[in-house]
Design brief:
This protein is an alpha/beta fold. It has ten helices and ten strands. Strand 7, helix 5 and strand 8 form a beta-alpha-beta unit. Keywords: NADP, Oxidoreductase.
Length: 272
């Protein structure tokens, strides 16, 4: 069994493949080709979002790949700016339509605050109650069978704690940025203690780790590329990596991570 066939098990028992294809910033036609190629070459897990603007093309890629729908795991996300129950239901229903599927495997709240406010320091409005309304929409869609699993993205511990007080179903996933040199021990610890799977997007730091001499030393030791080390680094922490590429050779290489980084080297990478 390859890493593409291995799975994590979510709190509700649903299995999710350990490596997914990210499609953030993938132009629609590129997203179509990357999705189709990835599925034809062993991937089963595709991650997209309403605001990426590529769900129609990804849906076509799903169909044209010839892979059975029940073998594929699809993630989408409700826009961070849409903070009401009704808007959230709209995002779910329109995503189903755009993807051309009867159900979505995992739907997330894309961020706890509108993107324009996500990097404000100090943090302004927290939108706790609005997120609870979005969550209620996810719970209802989950219970109606439109969604197989539900979760959040970019949520801090405070956001998660407030939602836990309001939720009748606890989040199964928190998708956050996570890569060598940018880790979040507090969120990871909270999630793993509460049976929330952490997914890591931008595992190669949107390319900024390419050429890093210290990571290259580790890559050379294992006979791997820097992206492969970055992706494996997350897997060693039981984090699900979502490497994004539209290049066929990189899509294949990003899945060749069936190796182990030893504890000493993990500690070194943690220190960077």
């Amino acid at each position: 069994m390859t890493i593409l066939e291995e799975t994590f098990t979510l709190a509700n028992g649903v299995k999710i493949q350990k490596v997914g294809l990210g499609t953030w910033q993938s132009e629609p036609n590129d997203a179509y080709k990357a999705t189709k190629f990835a599925l034809e070459n062993g991937y089963f897990h595709i991650d997209t979002a309403y605001v990426y603007g590529n769900q129609v093309e990804i849906g076509q890629g799903l169909k044209d790949s010839g892979v059975a729908r029940d073998k594929i795991f699809i993630t989408s996300k409700i826009p961070a700016e849409w903070k009401s129950y009704d808007e959230s239901i709209k995002a779910i229903d329109e995503s189903l339509e755009q993807l051309g599927v009867d159900y979505i495997d995992l739907m997330l709240i894309h961020a706890p605050r509108p993107w324009s406010e996500m990097h404000q320091r100090p943090i302004g409005e927290r939108y706790y109650d609005e997120n609870a309304e979005m969550w209620r929409a996810l719970e209802d869609a989950y219970e109606s069978g439109k969604l197989r699993a539900i979760g959040v993205s970019n949520f801090d511990v405070d956001d998660l704690k407030y939602l836990a007080q309001k939720a009748r179903i606890q989040p199964m996933v928190n998708q956050i940025i996570y890569h060598i040199g940018n880790t979040n021990a507090e969120v990871l610890d909270y999630c793993q203690k509460h049976d929330i799977l952490v997914e890591g997007y931008s595992p190669i730091a949107t390319g900024r780790l390419l050429g890093n001499e210290r990571v290259q030393e580790i890559a050379d030791k294992y006979g791997k590329s820097i992206p492969q080390i970055c992706i494996r680094y997350l897997l060693e922490k039981d984090i699900l990596p979502l490497p994004k590429s539209v290049h066929e050779n990189y899509i294949v290489q990003n899945a060749a991570v069936d190796f182990v980084i030893d504890a000493v080297d993990m500690a070194y990478l943690d220190s960077l």
